[in-house]
């Protein structure tokens, strides 16, 4: 495992542990619409290193460990860092856009960044086999990726599981776009997959404002 992945995991653990022990610290750096609109833009970055609990942290760090080494070995450290942080910010920006009228909406977690890394690895190796528990049947990476986009759109509309689906979706889109910029050969190598995901993303941008959140 590369030093940058270890460094990101350590940073997430240390910042999250501080947030677990200090509600003041947690509240100061979490993603919170009213505070961000009031000028505290750093929350769009710092919230990506905070987590709700150890299970939330562990799930994200395990996903970063699994998929991060694929992206890091393919792109190198500098571009891996670019994908990670650009996806984190993309997730926060999309959450801000979707919830801008919900002043008390708040969220934390590295899910936006990790979603970007996951999607980058799927773009590079769409035929990789993934096993999503509790269903012990391997599925191709591109099937997971398309399903992930559709489920996130559904979850954002219906607030499924009290999860920040908008951050997941924004981060995934960030990872998708940056990978295409860094590795344009993906378009010719996996045209159909890239095209399907592009149609879903374009549809989201054109019709995303029609997703009425159920209260």
Could you explain the architecture of this structure?
Residues 41-183 form the Peptidase S54 rhomboid domain. GO terms for molecular function: serine-type endopeptidase activity. It is a multi-pass membrane protein. It is found in: Membrane. One of its GO terms (cellular component) is membrane. By secondary structure, the chain is mostly helical. The protein has a single domain (3-210), classed as Rhomboid-like (Rhomboid-like fold, Up-down Bundle), CATH 1.20.1540.10. It is 70% helix and 4% strand. It is built from eleven helices and four strands, in the order ααβααααβαββαααα. The chain has helices at 3-21, 23-29, 33-37, 43-46, 54-75, 77-98, 111-124, 141-158, 165-182, 185-189, 191-207; strands spanning 31-32, 106-107, 129-130, 139-140. The strands form two sheets. It has a two-stranded antiparallel sheet with strand order 1-2. Strands 3-4 form a two-stranded antiparallel ribbon. A hairpin with an 8-residue loop joins strand 3 and strand 4 (139-140). Helix 1 packs across helix 2 (23-29) and helix 6 crosses helix 7 (111-124). The mean pLDDT is 85.
């Amino acid at each position: 495992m590369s030093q940058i992945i270890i460094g990101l995991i350590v940073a997430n653990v240390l910042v999250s542990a501080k947030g677990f022990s200090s509600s003041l610290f947690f509240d100061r750096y979490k993603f919170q619409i009213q505070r961000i609109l009031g000028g505290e833009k750093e929350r769009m970055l710092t919230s990506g290193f905070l987590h709700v609990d150890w299970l939330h942290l562990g799930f994200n760090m395990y996903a970063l460990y699994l998929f991060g080494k694929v992206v890091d070995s393919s792109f190198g450290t500098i571009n891996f860092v670019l994908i990670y942080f650009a996806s984190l910010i993309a997730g926060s920006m999309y959450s801000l856009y979707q919830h801008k009228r919900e002043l008390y909406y708040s969220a934390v977690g590295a899910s936006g960044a990790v979603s970007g890394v996951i999607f980058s690895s799927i773009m590079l190796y769409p035929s990789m086999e993934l096993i999503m528990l509790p269903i012990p049947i391997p599925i191709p990476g591109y099937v997971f990726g398309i399903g992930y986009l559709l489920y996130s759109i559904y979850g954002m509309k219906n607030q499924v599981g009290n999860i920040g689906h908008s951050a997941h979706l924004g981060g995934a889109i960030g990872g998708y776009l940056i990978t295409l910029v860094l590795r344009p050969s993906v378009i010719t190598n996996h045209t159909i997959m890239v095209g399907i995901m592009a149609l879903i993303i374009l549809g989201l941008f054109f019709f995303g404002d029609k997703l009425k959140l159920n209260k």
